[in-house]
Amino acid sequence: MVRVLASDGMDKAAARTLEEAGYEVVQQFYEAEELKERVKEFDVLVVRSATRVREEVIDAALSSGRLKLIIRGGVGMDNIDVSYAREHGIKVSNTPAASSVSVAELAIAHMFSLARFLYISNVTMREGRWEKKAYKGTELCGKTLGLVGMGRIGRETAIRASALGMHVIYTNQSGPKQDLPYEWKSLDDLLRESDYVSLHMPGRKGSPALLTREKIALMKDGAFLINTSRGVLVDPEALCDALDSGHLQGAAMDVYVEEPCRDERILHHPKISMTPHIGAATKEAQEKIGEETVRIIREMFG
Fold it and tell me: Would you say the CATH fold of 100-274 matches that of 3-96+282-301?
């Protein structure tokens, strides 16, 4: 029997489909040390963002020779040492299209939240404060959105922003894409010209920030920053300093350098709209991730 370890959980329908097809599905999170022992007992390891599959975990799996497939339920695979696994004969896959719409919609939702003070007025009203004059917002229509990264999520965000009347520009590592109706810019020019900057790039813990203090300084006075991608892309101290000085008007974060976030300055900043890494946390996305995970497993094992 093919054994599947879903260490960060799995959609119920997907688990049921696999079990009805004769697979054993174990849904259990293990800390790194215990995972090194448990992973030896499985043919497939399915993870989301919580489980880290580093070289030592892969080495442990190799010692038994059983693990053949690692699946990242979602887009980014920075929590998996992909090259190392593949070099040692373990297939690594993800489900890149499954959560694109959900993450894009969250990025747009955060833009609305910032533009109309939804994130903070919801708090102050519950505290008994009627601060109508303090919440003079702005319209998204007519504003320039700069997308840093133009993969599946970036494209879905661009479609929705364009429908709202925003002017979309983008930058990426591979240069202009001929099939897109949006204008390509260098990162520095995009930062200078955008009213809203939304990040859609991969990033790995320990790597240098993309938006350093110097890069944030290039952004327009009164601009907004949205990060639904990876927390390590933004220097949190530089971001808070820019918000405190008034250089940036607001920021939205769904991802953090450390998760759960314990950065007191971030957690209590009145200009930051926050969510707890819920970009793909929709019913539809979870169903799509589950369906894609089942397809990948059955293509390999039958």
Answer: yes
